[in-house]
Specification:
mainly alpha; 8 helices
């Protein structure tokens, strides 16, 4: 029974410490970043909205199979995220990839080949990249072998257009 006092005191200190975990050390409330606020404000599009976005894409992407594109993206998912503000992983986050200069995602360490590439990502460049990245841009550290099938690349690109905030011009 004599040991119970120190054990309870230790437990009380631990409980207070855990309750403070993650709380700001100042009296000011934590500020949300604009990306986090935008992410919370914009719910993911519904399947119907995705079909409308797909229909607005230029040919041949407007006739793509989004389900197949999503299935092909499974090959990419272990290295890339596509959500707004998503993490960089082995590869950079792909949200907003269309219209972005290659090698420009903040906080991601690109190969020298990608950093020095004079590419603005569009469907044509992405199609060539996805066919065989090492041939399209020698020196890339991306180890993906490529998608040989043209339809699979078209479907994947359309899926990325729909899912990564692409705005048709």
């Amino acid at each position: 029974m004599r040991r119970l006092g120190p054990i309870l005191a230790t437990a009380a200190i631990a409980a207070v410490s855990l309750a403070a975990c993650g709380k700001s050390q100042t009296s000011e409330p934590a500020q949300e970043t604009p990306a986090a606020t935008a992410e919370q404000a914009a719910p993911a599009p519904t399947d119907e909205e995705k079909q409308k976005i797909l229909a607005s894409l230029p040919a041949p992407y407007n006739a793509a199979d989004l389900a197949n594109g999503e299935a092909k993206f499974a090959l990419c998912r272990s290295c890339h995220t596509i959500t707004p503000g998503g993490a960089n992983m082995t590869g950079p986050n792909l949200h907003g990839v269309f219209g972005r200069e290659a090698g420009k995602v903040e906080g991601f360490k690109y190969s020298e080949a990608v950093e020095k590439a004079d590419i603005v990502w569009d469907a044509n460049h992405l199609d060539q990249w996805l066919a065989k990245p090492q041939t399209y841009l020698p020196g890339t550290k991306m180890s993906f072998a490529g998608l040989k099938d043209e339809k699979d690349r078209r479907d994947l690109i359309a899926f990325l257009m729909v899912e990564t905030g692409h705005k048709p011009q």
